[in-house]
Amino acid sequence: MIINVEGLKKRYKKQMVLKGIDMKVDSPQIIALVGPNGSGKTTLLNCMTNLLSFNEGQVELLEKKHTDSSLFHEVSYLQDNRILYGSLTGYDHLKFICSVQKLPTSKIKEVAERVGMESYLKKRVRNYSLGMKQHLLLAMVIINEPRLLLMDEPLNGLDPTSAINMRRILLELHDEGTTIMVSSHNLDEIDRLTNTIYFMKDGALLKESLEDFSTKKYLLTVSEVERAKVILEEQEVPFTVNKDYQIGFEDTVVDVQTFIDRLNENDISIQDIEIQKIGAEKRYRELFEQELSS
Ligand SMILES: Nc1ncnc2c1ncn2[C@@H]1O[C@H](COP(=O)(O)OP(=O)(O)OP(=O)(O)O)[C@@H](O)[C@H]1O
């Protein structure tokens, strides 16, 4: 088991933030941790990595108790940039990690190239931009090639090029067998990274799996809506018609090409096809509708 969390409860004074979290991950994957501000994502990651104590429950990472100090070779945690030292350079930070992880310093150049920070590696961190600090944080957590990588808001402050680069690196690490758990508010980016999402709601985790998110919705604008509706009805396909007279159906319920062929046979022309991914944002809206409207 890569991650095994059972009945984890965490209270800050009277506020119960984590109300009994259970999580089991037994194969390498990318998992997103999503939830509104203050829902407990950072608290959960801090508890899992032994930076915070908790009130009840247990955590095992890579079959070891989360307090086992040997885990630091195999588990990395990207936290926010307040852990960085302004008076030190990026190189100094990476050299320190090499010394505690017993890695050759040749790794520094390699990882700096991988994240694209060679040009400012020797500058002091106090002169780094937010995005540059994120690059350094990323370099610091991947230099030891961890089996498990936990990341709290890694996309903060990244420009589109850096975000694309970060995504590429995370997907490469995943291909190499690393399990990655990433908290983020950037739902579009989450959609590009993974279909496995844990939503944090009311101190509990709701796991949403790949199947629920891999659907697409087609919205067709056709020359004759009423006749097109009859054809869909004949095929017993559930569909909707919106206020713009677009006919909508999900790709799981009908073979789109078959439907298009039927329309053509009946001389109904298709003027436009819009494809929507049913993704993290849609599910987020459903789960947190109340919070969004208040
Ligand atoms: N040290 C602390 N003392 C008391 N309460 C805390 C402490 N740290 C966090 N909290 C509270 O715990 C709750 C969860 O905070 P946490 O930072 O884990 O949320 P989050 O989901 O990571 O939020 P964000 O998306 O804003 O980063 C919040 O209500 C917060 O006020």
UniProtKB/TrEMBL annotation:
It comes from the Bacteria. Keywords: ATP-binding, Nucleotide-binding, Transport. The keyword Nucleotide-binding applies. This is ABC-2 type transport system ATP-binding protein. Residues 3-227 form the ABC transporter domain. Pfam families: ABC_tran. CDD domains: ABC_DR_subfamily_A. GO terms for molecular function: ATP binding; ATP hydrolysis activity. The keyword Cell membrane does not apply. SMART domains: AAA. Gene3D superfamilies: P-loop containing nucleotide triphosphate hydrolases (3.40.50.300). Belongs to the ABC transporter superfamily.
